[in-house]
């Protein structure tokens, strides 16, 4: 309620000024609330869940200066892993220039708007104590890591069950309860998480990068929308609930379309996630995973395998031919592909060959174009890569990191051969960073080749 006063005479002017002075000082003590990243309703508009203050008249504050983040540290990056304590073998791997640290959304936000940063804080402290100066931070806000309280809050028609078709997952052949990405409550919860995380960590100079722009992520922070069509060979029957058994036929794009999926709608989710990550982390570089979508249904893919990832590229980096300007934060977004294997084509191949839009080679072309760079891009190294699996696992994953039994290291998938070949091919793309799995960054057999790769990339090992 506003009360209007009519002030007449010098006496009243002086009296009003005397009263305003202590009020102005009181106003200085009130910290500005963090900006709300989206106006979408359905979840806490304030990630810290503070009581709503009574609106008071105040002058518009000066814009907070944005500190340009340091260049992305060049070289091979490792992972802290899932354990609570840092592995001494990781610390001893001097070719690793920085490490990724993450926790799952379901663990970080156990109740609406209540955040538990304990695991992340502990791992960050351990990494610093071990001598790591560079950290990449993430909270896995994927479909499979959605907090149960959030799923329980959604109406049944705002979720779908998608069968996990990845045999390397513990949830293989289990239905994953999946919130619709465009559901306002789910989307706002992810935006709130990003804002709260940024408020806590953006001013830590050791955190040079974050992975919080992922928007098409079912399992991890990678691009991994469930879009399988066909038969999945599940374990033989019988199996304990909820694992399905035998041959199961699925059409996951049809499930998405029946639930209301459109490419423009998903693209809008991606735009808002990128904007939110950039606003919450003005001092960090930001990874932007890319990938493709099954092309069986044009309504699902948007027309081609790479339509959505090309559309998000145009939004972030701009497209002069379309008259689309780059976003203000474009210079600190690093496009990333997380499927490098020993059988990849060398990056220089794409300097003279542009693949069609309807297959994965075009995604590799995009990485090379941003990293090399090739026109229209002009900033060298503005891209990153991650291995698809761990070389240490050998043939236990059907030689996944080796490119399959017919890959360059043969059906035995000798881990040393697979890791060396994978590093060699990854380096040909000219990316700023190559991420390897936790099982590989603690393997002493890989120390020398990892250090050599970091040096060849132009990076600096930690013992130099």
What does the model show?
The protein has 464 residues and is of the alpha/beta class. The chain contains 14 helices and twelve strands. The protein has an eight-stranded parallel beta barrel with strand order 1-2-3-6-9-10-11-12, surrounded by six helices. Strands 4-5 form a two-stranded antiparallel ribbon. β11, α12 (415-427) and β12 (433-435) form a beta-alpha-beta unit. α8 (263-280) runs parallel beside α10. The protein starts with 8 loop residues before the first helix and ends in an 8-residue tail after the last helix. Mean pLDDT is 88; it is low at 1-67.
Describe, in short, the structure shown.
With 464 residues, this protein is an alpha/beta fold. It contains 14 helices and twelve strands.
- Counting copies of identical and different chains, the oligomeric state is single chain
Report the sheet-strand fraction: 5-15%
Strand line-up across the major sheet = 1-2-3-6-9-10-11-12
**Structural class designation:** alpha/beta
CA(first)-CA(last) distance? 64 Å
Overall form: globular
Low-confidence stretches: 1-67
| Approximate helicity band | 25-40%
Total strands: 12
Rg computed from alpha carbons, rounded to a whole number of angstroms: 24 Å
Succession of helices and strands: HEHEHHEHEEHEEEHHEHHEHEHEHH
For the report, how would you describe the main beta sheet? 8 strands, parallel, barrel
Mean pLDDT across residues: 88
Number of helices: 14
């Amino acid at each position: 309620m506003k009360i209007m006063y009519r002030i007449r005479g010098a006496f009243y002017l002086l009296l009003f000024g005397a009263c305003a002075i202590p009020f102005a000082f009181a106003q200085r003590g009130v910290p500005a609330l963090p900006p709300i990243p989206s106006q979408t309703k359905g979840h806490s508009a304030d990630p810290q869940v503070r009581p709503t203050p009574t609106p008071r008249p105040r002058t518009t504050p000066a814009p907070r200066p944005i500190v340009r983040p340091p260049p992305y540290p060049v070289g091979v990056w490792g992972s802290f892993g899932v354990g609570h304590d840092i592995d001494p073998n990781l610390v001893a791997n001097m070719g690793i220039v920085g490490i990724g640290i993450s926790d799952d959304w379901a663990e970080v936000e156990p109740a609406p708007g209540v955040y538990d940063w304990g695991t992340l804080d502990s791992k960050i402290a351990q990494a610093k104590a071990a001598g790591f100066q560079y950290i990449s931070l993430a909270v896995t806000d994927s479909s499979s890591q959605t907090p149960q309280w959030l799923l329980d809050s959604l109406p049944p028609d705002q979720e779908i069950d998608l069968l996990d078709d990845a045999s390397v997952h513990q949830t293989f052949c289990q239905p994953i309860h999946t919130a619709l990405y465009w559901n306002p409550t789910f989307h706002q919860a992810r935006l709130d998480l990003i804002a709260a995380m940024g408020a806590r960590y953006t001013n830590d100079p050791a955190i040079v990068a974050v992975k919080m722009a992922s928007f098409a992520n079912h399992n991890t922070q990678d691009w991994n929308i469930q879009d399988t069509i066909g038969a999945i060979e599940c374990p033989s029957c019988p199996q304990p609930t909820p694992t399905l058994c035998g041959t199961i036929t699925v059409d996951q794009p049809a499930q998405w379309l029946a639930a209301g999926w459109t490419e423009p709608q998903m693209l809008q989710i991606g735009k808002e996630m990128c904007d939110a990550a950039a606003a919450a982390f003005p001092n960090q570089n930001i990874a932007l995973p890319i990938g493709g979508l099954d092309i069986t249904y044009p309504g699902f893919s948007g027309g081609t395998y790479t339509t959505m990832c090309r559309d998000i590229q145009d939004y972030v980096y701009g497209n002069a031919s379309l008259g689309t300007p780059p976003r203000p934060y474009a210079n600190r977004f690093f496009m990333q592909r997380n499927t490098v294997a020993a059988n990849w084509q060398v990056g220089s191949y794409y300097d003279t060959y542009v693949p069609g839009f309807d297959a994965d080679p075009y995604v590799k072309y995009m990485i090379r174009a941003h990293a090399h760079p090739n026109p229209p891009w002009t900033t060298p190294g503005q891209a990153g890569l991650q291995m698809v699996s761990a070389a240490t696992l050998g043939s236990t994953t059907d030689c996944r990191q080796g490119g399959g039994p017919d890959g360059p290291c043969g059906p035995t998938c000798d881990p040393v051969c697979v890791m060396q070949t994978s590093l060699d091919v990854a380096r040909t793309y000219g990316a700023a960073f190559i991420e390897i799995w936790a099982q590989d960054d603690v393997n002493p057999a890989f120390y020398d080749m990892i250090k050599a790769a970091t040096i060849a990339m132009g990076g600096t090992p930690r013992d130099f």
